[in-house]
Amino acid sequence: MAAVRRPAGETLSIDVARRIALAAQGFADPRPSGRVDVRHVRRVIDRVGVLQIDSVNVLCRSHYLPMFARLGAYSRAALDQLAWGGERELVEYFWGHKASLLPMATYPLLRWRMRVAERQMWDAALDPELAVPWSVVAGMQRLSVERPGLVDEVLAVVTERGPITAGEANPDGVRRKRTDPDPDPSTGRMWNWQDAKIAVEYLFCTGRVAIAGRRNFERLYDLTERVVPAGVLARPELDSDEARRELIRISARALGVATARELCGASGGYFPLPIATAKRVISELVEAGDLVPVRVEGVSQPSYRWSEAEDRPVPARALLSPFDTLIWNRDRTHRLFDCFYRISIYTPAAQRVHGYYVLPFLLGDRLVARVDLKADRRNSALVVPTVTAEPGVPDGEIVEPLAAELSLMARWLELDRVLVSAPGDLGRALSQAV
User: Fold this and answer.
1) What is the pTM of this model?
2) Which of 11, 254, 338, 407 is deepest in the core (most CB within 10 A)?
3) How high is the pLDDT of residue 360?
């Protein structure tokens, strides 16, 4: 099927909308047949716009997986070099959909957001959809009273010693004791942040420091001018409206077709914006011809197609990270793929249905199975504790392509074998196939 452009006002079937979304995310392109190099990695990053970072490492750090899904086996060191090497091309920021790696060209588009973040510390009611992490807001409100000079002291340590961890940025070595129950939300019941961590995260949110790298996955902070290239910092600063238009363009190009909330909603949007502001900017982009209003079958809200988005055949075969940009908006995933997917790492073991770290398996233009995966590095095995076919998908359709993808992933992760311990007919058939 050749690529198809669609006129304004058209109603798209859910099948067409799904293919447009997959093509926009790079899944309509075949994987490279030869050696995968940094040019392929750059193209994926340019296409998806953002790589979400997550600390869970039961399989592989999440920011590596979207690249594997689109390219197959590639060098993770190539991505590390782009993110944290000497000639870095990516920058880390928390607002590009959670903690994320973004193309360096996106950094200037976030400066207005950094100014909002600075005001946010003192007015938690300001722009609630643009809020910085609550641990930073609450912590800074407390520190402004208890330790008003701490931010400057931490900045001085980073200036002298960076790149350093938050613990190393502590100017006096004082550590707060966590009480139980903890009456102070700024310590964070999950994170238990110390004062120096709150201060350096405030500096990060407001753009005065940046993430220079990671040590055992812990952030290393340094002055922004020592991390972000001078040419990027020297670019003229856009006003907030100009920046918002560019950010929504990035979202629209990466999503292909989406509702306003999918483009930039507080939950699941690429770059969250207040919905009233987002709708105004979307109207401007429609008038400019960048976005084309359409209706998507079964979706009550108006949708918008990126003007260059195409309906293309999708020959994909990919295991998708829970944080892949294709599926991180769970409601959109449900609508496009008829797949009610939720990550299970925070679900009590007794309540898990499909496993702990579950990756949807994309075959063609459908999600056909869910695969629980674990890298057993001690025994050099890619372990499959659970595999579940989606309703109506025959096991025979899944086994061979899934076995091939698991074998490829094991080699990429430098594991010697695939060990399928999943019960049931599908698990047994897969065990024989790998």
Assistant:
1) 0.91
2) 254
3) 98
